[in-house]
Design goal:
3 strands; elongated; three-stranded antiparallel β-sheet; 2 domains; mainly alpha; 13 helices
Length: 275
Amino acid sequence: MLCIRRWYTSIFGFWVTKSFKIPSFCWWISFNEYAYTGDLKNHINSEILAKIDSRKEFERPGAGGSVSKTYGYDATVLVDICNLLIECNYAGILTPKQQEYARQAQIIISSVAKVGIIGLIDEVTGYNQHKNRAKDELQKFLSSFLREDSAKWVKTFDDSFFEAIYKMRGWSWDYTTKHPGVVGKWINDIVYERLGPMVLTELRDLNPITEKGHRAKKHHQFLSEAVGVPRLKSHLEAAKALAIVSDYDWDKFMRMMDKAYPKHHQQLSLLIEEE
């Protein structure tokens, strides 16, 4: 593990050649050429030299010929070299070519600092383990709540639910099965966004809009019989009860709904921060 975490074999040479745009056939010779030009050579400290001199030889499994072995360097030496270039550039002692390397060094340091501090905090606080565990738990929940293939359509949203919606909006109810498009948006708001995290997002993926501009199935057809459907029916009954208690006042109903059944996040980035 020490070898993997603190010593990088060809990776260090790769970073040097790619980041500073110097020839890859022998990065150390190229490094000497630019590092020991002008006043920069007087600022290369013993710590940097010691890290470079203490390189370790590694076997490259599967490689043959002249590249069967390579060398590993302390991973922090790249940061040391970058800091050296940046400091000397501020001091105004670099040659024009070295100034190009200093600009590349600034980009590297900015990237390393951002990734490093986030990684350090995540590691110390145990956030990485928590994040992975949260993803696993979310996947287990969705697997139990949803089904990959749609079930046969069965009337799930009964007339009394739609009657309550229409009454709260001041519309007349005539037991129609064709509702204005806005009703679908209200159902997403009142029902699907409140059933659980990522439920509506996953349902939209499982039941996408077709080329004709509508969905082939109803969202509830993708809820599992064991968990999803019972949870939906329970929620619908609760919504009807809140409609009655609110005296069919839409604003009051929504305030009560938000308090009793708050919405769940439907974006993974809001639940679990992604890299």
